[in-house]
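Usage example:
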Amino acid sequence: MSELETFLNQVAARYRRALLMRAGLLAGLSLGALGVLAWRLRTMGVSAVWSVGVPVVVGLGGIAGLGWWARARWVSRQGAAAHLDRTLDLQQRLITAAEYSRMASPPALYAALAQEVAQHCSSRHPRFPKPFDHAMGMLLAALLLFLFWPHQQLVRQAAVQPPGEQPTAPTPLKTPPESQPDAAAQPQQRRADSQPSSASQQSSGSQQAAPSSGQNSASQESSAQASSPQGPSSTEHAQAAADRQSSKSHHAKGSRKDQRSGASPGSTQGTGSERNASTAASQQIAAQAQSSNQGTSGTSAGNQEAMKGEIQRLLKEVSGELQELQTQLASAQRQPDPKAGTSTDPELYESPMPDDLNAGAQSLPITLPTDTATTKTPRPSAGVGRPAAEASSATPQMTAEQAALTDRPADESPSARQPIPPEYRGVFDRLQHDSPPSEQTP
Amino acid sequence: MTPQPLTVQPEEFRKTFDALSEELHRVIVGQDEVIERLLIAFFAGGHALLEGVPGLGKTLLAKSVAHALGLSFKRIQCTPDLMPADILGTQLVVEREGRKQFEFAKGPVFTQVLLADEINRATPKTQSALLEAMEERQVTVSGTTFRLEEPFFVMATQNPIEMEGTFPLPEAQLDRFFFKILVDYPSAEELSQILRQTTVVDTASVRAVVPTERAHAWILNARRLVREVLVASAVEEYVVRLVTSTRPDDNGADNAAKRFLRYGASPRGAQAILMGAKAHALIKGRVHVSFEDIDRVLLPALNHRVVLSFEAEADRRTTTEILAELTEPLRAAATRT
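Running the assembly step on the lines above writes:
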């Protein structure tokens, strides 16, 4: 093996080593990033299928892509020569020398070429690709970002959450809960701000009630803040339900068209009394829940029992009303149904015609003169057969014309048959009898 | 098989080439590219077609090359009444030893450097008389074949503006020219120098760089050296891609080739590119061909070997423009890999 071949083999090996190092680094960083992603998803409470399966699939795809990438960039000895030619501006000296070096009897000028190559390579030093580049830096940054992103809050929520329960909405990663409180928590905070003296007791009461309800938060303040983005408390749930019900009842008072296009079609099915009853019941529940919340905020566990009893009583009332509504509904269903597609079908026509129009079976209030006029000339044959004498005499009479063949030639122009005015008759006769003038050549 | 030793070394070739170029520049002001291409065509073993308007020194250049190389020189002024026998020679009846016999009188083609001035004024019959001489280096008259003396180099000139009464060279004959060299106007500075050199009593003349007694051998060895220059397979593939890119009917033909070219370059064009590149590499002091050498000789080797389409002529597109458009992406790809 010649010196040139040895040199090219060394260069190719260095390129391959650099490529393999780079591929390994890329693979390691990518797998690390995917592992961290899987761990973060798991701590956020995402199911195992998604938190593990997706990173595994992405990782396998990435490894396959990396293999293809490394194979496409695999450097042969000739490839190393071409790369050196390009980077060292050797003007294809190395690839030429590499080709001729393998020949058993190289041509006469090969020695000169090998000498040239040795001179150029000794004066210039090739640069090899670095395994760590921008792509690596980006991947490393992504990995570090995943690792050190503030996520204690998520871990705490996952620990607080019961094992079978899924979070209603994941907390956004970019905004910590202190900076952007949830919209549902804002009214509570506003209430606390507007009642600095009396509400302080309430807030302290609610803060004391939180640990008693079983939540293992570290501090009371943080527990209140942590629960707000996770979802409203039972009081807030009731308040929100009451708000929704009040909005529904407000919509129910609107027109029928508005009710059809409303967001709650079920509420529009019932009658007005049913709606009023259900609305009143829900409002009562909301009010009771609010009052019970306020009541429990300053009381102990004994009060909770009283509150439970009150809630049960309200539930009974609501169930009674529901039974009443069901009976009303059943009686309404016993009435004969309108036939579909007929005028009794209320769904067929938008609004029925007023009854007074059809009541008297009266025709349109317009009377034409022809409706009452008497006929003076009755048709004798009622329009069938021969016409009346008056009518037949009034029609234009046509006499049959006898057709006869003319003795004139067919190609005679129609103008010739026009009558000749008498003042020109003589001229025409003369022209007809006289011979045509002959042309005389000079 | 051991390689035969080279009589002419690359360094000696480069020095002689530089000396020739310098000597020619004593009488020809400027036109560096023309002189370089003419000498490349000569050392590559081809023939050159010089195209330019009258008065640019084409005939002077041809004569000077012959003198500088120490070779015999003859000139044919082509006219419409020039006959093939006027070029090749004819059988004459001579009386010798009391007997009359035919004897072949050699024409001007029997020389080493032949200048066919205004070749497109000769009739196609006369033009074709040069075909065998240019390609086969032999002449057949009355069934007798005569070998031409090596080195045989034909330089033809033609005037592109006076087309009346001319006979444009057929494609077959154009293809036999190694290079078509376009001679352009000199610049203002060069024109001033021309005036200073040629309007005085003592005008410059060309001396023989290669002594006449050994010119024949030296030139043949130099031509062998050119053929010995090393070429990598990647460079050969580049030449092949360049030539095939000019074929409009090829499967992967470029849009420009399909639109503007009627016929592409022949294999002889590829040979001309590679041989010219070899000679160019030697004059640049290298013993191998690079992509740069190929690019340098591409236009003179191909611009008379492609036939423009009607659309190209209607759009007034030149062969040089179209070839540059075709080869630009190939050149970029070759330098990337």
